[in-house]
Design goal:
Elements (H helix, E strand, L loop, with lengths): L1 H29 L4 H8 L2 H34 L5 H13 L2 H12 L6 H6 L8 H12 L1 H14 L2 H8 L4 H30 L2 H6 L10 H10 L3 H31 L1
Helix pairs in contact: 1-13, 2-13, 3-7, 3-8, 3-10, 3-12, 5-7, 7-10, 8-10, 9-10, 10-13, 12-13
Length: 264
């Protein structure tokens, strides 16, 4: 009994030092100047644009990754292609590669002197230092989450229900919408929430490809960095607190989904 209490105490202390105390200090520092100052810091034109741009990028990147994640999971579990091991490795690539490397690779491909950049520039399409580049970078770093949540669910449910639907005359599309998708809905929802949290907090790849143009390509994470480097600590804390609130809301949604999954 005493050993369990000690282990729990160590675990709680570890989480407190690494997570609770730093986030709590950000909140304390944020509201030191008073709520009026905080409101002014998060409602400047630059802050509002960064907030809405972050939401826009997330709203585009996450659904696209959700579609790809489900398709990738179906190929990995139901497919018979010899390329499945390659796809399996590629899906996990964003976990292994630094986001900064991702940003540099995107410049090599989509930059003005890159592999596709010159052709895209001639067509009037700009990727690097614009919103499309931020979306693509965010999609890359968020790519694994939906697939890795859906794959174990597909393996658990097996193929019996899908085969039964096919035997009863359902097409592949009907089987997916009426059998497969309802069965994987909780794994899909959990993966979408994780992707959302990752998209909102992305910094490394976005900082490389965005150009950090205030009022144009500056997300919330980039706004925090700019204010910090400009010694605007109150503004940096306020923007950080806004990101923390979004993260806590995401965690709350994850807990709610997990509870509903357990009771379903």
């Amino acid at each position: 009994m005493a050993g369990r209490l000690v282990m729990r105490g160590i675990a709680l202390a570890y989480l407190g030092v690494l997570l609770a105390v730093p986030v709590g200090m950000v909140m304390v520092k944020t509201f030191e100047p008073g709520p009026v100052a905080v409101w002014q810091a998060v409602t400047t034109p630059a802050a509002l644009h960064a907030f809405w741009l972050t939401l826009l990028v997330t709203a585009v990147a996450v659904p696209l990754n959700a579609v790809f994640g489900v398709l990738a999971a179906l190929v990995l579990v139901r497919g018979r292609s010899r390329l499945r091991p390659v796809l399996d490795v590629m899906v996990d690539l964003p976990f292994a590669v630094s986001p900064v490397v991702v940003g540099l690779a995107m410049i090599l491909v989509y930059g003005r002197d890159g592999w596709l950049g010159g052709w895209l520039a001639d067509a009037g399409i700009r990727i690097i230092f614009s919103v499309p580049g931020i979306v693509i970078a965010t999609m890359f770093v968020c790519l694994p989450f939906v697939a890795r949540e859906v794959v174990p669910v597909l393996r658990e449910i097996g193929t019996e229900q899908e085969q039964a639907a096919s035997t009863l005359g359902a097409s592949g599309w009907q089987t997916f919408w009426r059998v497969t998708l309802p069965a994987i809905r909780w794994g899909l929802a959990y993966g979408v929430v994780l992707s959302t949290a990752r998209a909102v907090g992305e910094f490394g790849a976005v900082s490389i490809v965005s150009g950090k143009i205030s009022g144009q390509t500056e997300t919330l994470t980039l706004l925090v960095e700019k204010r910090y480097t400009n010694f605007d600590m109150a503004g940096a804390y306020a923007a950080s607190a806004l990101l923390a609130v979004i993260a806590l809301a995401t965690l709350g949604l994850m807990a709610l989904l997990q509870r509903r999954k357990d009771t379903a």
